[in-house]
Amino acid sequence: MKKPFHSLVSTIFAITVSIIYLSPFSLLEANPVGFSVDLIHRDSPSSPLYNSSLSHFERVSSALYRSTNRVKYYTRACTTPRSAFSDVISDGGEYLMKITIGTPPVSILAIADTGSDLIWTQCMPCLDCYKQKAPFFNPTSSSTYKEAPCDSRACQTLGGTFCSDGICQYMASYGDGSSSQGILATETVTLSSTTRRPMSLPKIIFGCGYVNDGSFSENESGIIGLGGGPLSLISQLRSSIGDKFSYCLVPFSSHNTKSSQMNFGQNAIVSGNRVVSTPITRKFPNTFYFLTLEGFSVGRQRLEFYNSSSSPNAFGNIIIDSGTTLTYLPSNFYSRLESAVRSAIKEEPIDDPQKILDLCYKVSNEISFPIITAHFTGADVKLSHLNTFIETSSDVACFAFAPADNIGIFGNVAQMNFLVGYDLRKRIVSFKPMDCSRE
Ligand SMILES: *[C@@H]1O[C@H](CO)[C@@H](O)[C@H](O)[C@H]1NC(C)=O
Ligand SMILES: *[C@@H]1O[C@H](CO)[C@@H](O)[C@H](O)[C@H]1NC(C)=O
Ligand SMILES: *[C@@H]1O[C@H](CO)[C@@H](O)[C@H](O)[C@H]1NC(C)=O
């Protein structure tokens, strides 16, 4: 099995158990701005992680392996007691975003991760860093760099336990033995917008890493946490973006033609016909965006997630995540859904040539895939076969759902060709069908 491409830090967001929101910064609070950035799928040609010697289907199968690893992260994160939560690590996810930090600005390409919070990059003087192609960020050549004191709110959000000479230190350890340590600091972060001039964001809290050792790629310089916890980029921008962001993920087959987009503030408003919305549930850990899935319909047959008498944890039973490829359901519900899908398709299933997924078909036959509708509370999201079946070779398509231990994750394949909007003030996620490779 392929090793996870890299592992990432989440000790920091992990410790943030309380719902303290850091006070907003000197941005235009009354007048939220709008801007949009490219979200680059790691396996698309515009990504530096793109390996041109792999075939399309080899890339698909490594995305499936990464997905399997990521669900382990979520399972651990959601079952670990709060006190031990700091050991849980994220594997980063599937999309990259370009940002610049400092004054003058230094460009970094980092993983955009809706499953973690901290923004983090390798810094000079690196004591022990992993190999990185792009230059390290050098805080001494930036006029806007400022270390976070131990008594700062940012440091206390981390638990305030790592303190040296009055400066806030972060320290993160990885499941695979690697680790990252550094200083918590504030910096000006600039996002280059596809719709306006670059957006400059002062005093963004980030980790300046001096000891970073692990299975990272030389082509990525860090992580941009987009989770719901207080240190994520989203939470730090809260009022200046009106607590809104959205994304439109292009299908695998359109990676060559267009990047996915992430929108903030005014650009992130999801409105018009065919918009459906569902509440976000507050749950531990607050990094994750928990929704409530009542069931699925396969064609006209409706399957409830829980049978009404036994729904102890129904609220927030599924996490929506852009960094997980497949959609995961607790195994018991998965089995019921899978057999409904199986009986809705006339053709005989075949074994997955990659041996990853459970329900596969030869697509050389004219298969008519059933429409599967996800019934979130208040929002029926009609998934097309592009959202529910993934081609794992030129003539095989497999059901893009998988079983997991007591956890639900609504993954990125299921979200492709939807504009997915998060309004953290109203605490809702909205879906609108959209051709993401055109818009
Ligand atoms: C990093 O990017 C370069 C192209 O910029 C590519 O040749 C190289 O294979 C990439 N390395 C990895 C580990 O993806
Ligand atoms: C690209 O894929 C080939 C074939 O699997 C592999 O040998 C090579 O190491 C990969 N390159 C990178 C930079 O990951
Ligand atoms: C729910 O009820 C259906 C039909 O009554 C049954 O087939 C299914 O096994 C039940 N599921 C669970 C999780 O109890």
TrEMBL record:
Keywords: Aspartyl protease, Glycoprotein, Hydrolase, Protease, Secreted, Signal. One of its GO terms (molecular function) is aspartic-type endopeptidase activity. InterPro entries: Aspartic_peptidase_AS, Pepsin-like_plant, PEPTIDASE_A1, Peptidase_aspartic_dom_sf, Plant_Aspart_Prot_A1, TAXi_C, TAXi_N. GO terms for biological process: proteolysis. It is found in: Secreted. CDD domains: pepsin_A_like_plant. The keyword Lyase does not apply. One of its GO terms (cellular component) is extracellular region. Residues 95-432 form the Peptidase A1 domain. Its main location: secreted. Belongs to the peptidase A1 family. This is Peptidase A1 domain-containing protein. It comes from Camellia sinensis var. sinensis.
